[in-house]
Amino acid sequence: MAYIRHSSSSMQNIEREKAAKHINRHHSAFSSIKKVFKYSKGYHKYFYLTFLFDLINSVFELFIPIYLGKCINFIVSKGNVDFKNLTINVCLLIGFVILSQIANLLGSISINKFNYNATYKIRDMLFKKFNSLPLSFIDTASHGDLLSRMINDIDTMTDGFLESFASIISGIMTIVGTLIAMFILNVKLAIIITILTPLSLLFTLIIVKRAKKYYQSEVKIQGDMSGYLEEYIGGERVVKAFNHENDSINNFNKVNNKYLTVSKKAAFYGNLSNPITRFINGIVYGVVGLFGALEAIRGNISVGVISSFLSYANSFGRPFNEISENISDIQAAFAASSRVFSVLEQPDEISDVNNPDLIFDKGNITLQNVSFSYIPKVKLIDNLNLNVKAGQKIAIVGPTGCGKSTFINLLMRFYDVTGGSISVDGSDIRTVTRSSLRDKYGMVLQETWLFNASIKDNIAYGNPNVPLEEVIKAAKLAGVDEFIQKMPQKYDTIVSEGGSNLSQGEKQLLCIARIMLLKPPMLILDEATSNIDTRTEMKIQQAFNTIMQGRTSFIVAHRLSTITNADCILVMNKGNIIEQGTHLELLAKKGFYANLYNSQFEKN
After folding, report:
1. Shortest CA distance to 157 belongs to which of 185, 191, 125?
2. pLDDT given at position 242
């Protein structure tokens, strides 16, 4: 069911500011990683397998330098080369290399499975969260920004955390194993490597602190850019109609330039740690080689052991290199995770799981002392009372911003009243399930909504299993069958995204056909024929009159000529019903409604 947006822009701005503050709240590294694992529950076995294969890989890698050194010693030893032992050690060396690479491959497969499945599950949970959030959150959020969190931020988060986290764990195992092996071979060289290599980590931590704010700004501006693009693409015709192409380009350039500036700084600091780390590791490598050569000249160490140490120096420094290489991904992941979790941790709309379904009898609706406001201190509807009898056709009229659409929002329980109550056949709508309440209404909005599927699927959206004959019957009632028959594939013609291959009138007729097919016990028509020509509107009005027989109906209208036959007309102004009665009764009063009605015929 499509929802109605309210017109309170000030409320939206206030709520967006609140949302922005919530989005940018601090998330520690530990809590972010913990939440990723929490939301990826069910796929942890792949992570444990990654840990196991990385451990096996690290063990095999420890033997490679040892047997490489032995092979070198056999080759450079005085006298005849011991080919038998050399062959055995070469075979063992090759075996450890192969086993190490197999374990590494299996570890990569495991972490990829964990990563892709975790991404799938978190994205699925986020989409479900969108459906459980109150409409007030969706109404006041930038839709492009929400899309960016769903697509870009989740990928950034899982790639940065899961792959980098696996590399860190593997690196820790490599560091521990390498330290043990080095101290067994030669204590002096082991101490040199142990003291010098971690300096790279110190520089990395300093850089991380500087880079963090730029990565947070980067993902936020990326969301702003997505929101701007979605807004521009959706309103491109309006932009062109008002010759605002240059202004749009300038506005986009501002956002794009801001993104460029922040991205360059983030990339600079993110990539700075890697060359510094490699520089320090190069110094370590040189010092080990020089000191080892001096020890070999003195006869304290063999050439093979020097070779082993140089390999261990690389192995010991590699985890620090990997951390510096992944620092930009990790920083981006921290920033993205706060945006993803800020949505997942939003409170859901009030649960109605324990409420009974609405027991519908006739369709009597009562509003008793109803009050409502989008902004707590600014009242929109105050102390509204109304009794609607089953089968009545109620028209709602009034100036823009008087509360007509808000009234419909409250009937459908898109928003809950802040005071008083609304009842259907004696049941307070807050005490029954939303789904059972909304099942009783059929709604046609001024703002049409069609999805990328066939015309048949769009009409049958509320009842997908209905046969084609019923769909055609509803289309004929709505006056839309004639133009469908002219389409290339008739009812199988695909409606493009947003219905851009149809006119506004055709889209609205399809939405009307959707309601004609459902035949709900109650109707809400919010400017349902605003985009239709007068001749077609007359036919639709006849169809509506037929379908409204015996059904409680609410009609929001600006063209007052369309509601002259309503059983009761509610005239709203500033959130209150200031007049009510039939068309003739209200004209006789010569009040607000009469002035509103007669103004339609005034000449300039």
Report:
1. 125
2. 61
**With 80 as the cut, is the pLDDT of residue 154 above it?**
yes
DSSP state, 6? -
* CB distance 597 to 587 below 8 Å: yes
Query: Is residue 604 very low, low, confident or very high in pLDDT (cuts 50, 70, 90)?
Result: very low
Whole-angstrom Cα distance, residue 509 to residue 530?
A: 11
Who wins on pLDDT, 541 or 105? Answer: 105
Tell me what percent of the residues of the chain surpass a pLDDT of 90: 0
Strand partners, 552: 522
Judge whether 23 and 339 are in contact, CB under 8 Å: yes
What are the b/e assignments for 457-496, b being 16+ CB within 10 Å?
Answer: bbbbbeeeebeeeebbbbbebbbbbebbeebeeebebebe
Task: Name the token pair of 182.
Answer: 């080095």
| Non-local CB neighbours of 396 within 8 Å, separated by 6+ positions | 404, 407, 408, 554, 555, 556, 557, 569, 570, 572
Amino acid at 28: S
Strand partners, 522: 441, 552
Residue 488 token pair:
């290339």
pLDDT-derived band at 64 (thresholds 50, 70, 90) equals confident
Q: What's the whole-number mean pLDDT along residues 356-383?
A: 82
Hey, what CATH class is 393-399+434-601 in?
A: alpha beta
Per domain, the residue ranges of the chain are 33-344, 393-399+434-601
**Distance (Å, whole) CA 67 – CA 64:** 5
| Mean pLDDT, rounded, of the chain | 77
Q: CA-to-CA distance for 305 and 349, rounded, in angstroms?
A: 67
pLDDT at 328 over 60: yes
Check whether domain 33-344 has CATH 1.20.1560.10, yes or no: yes
* The residue type at 266: A
Given this model, what pLDDT does residue 233 score?
64
Is residue 316 within 8 A of residue 197, CB to CB? The reply is yes
Burial status of residue 194 (CB atoms within 10 A of its CB: 0-12, 13-18, 19 or more)? middle
553 bridge partner residues: 393, 523
Residue 375: strand pairing partners: 378
Euclidean distance between CA atoms 525 and 155, whole angstroms: 41
| Rounded (to 5) percent helix, strand, coil in the chain | 65, 10, 25
Partnered with residue 368 across adjacent β-strands are 421
Beta bridge partners of 371: 419
Helix and strand totals (H; E) in the chain: 22, 10
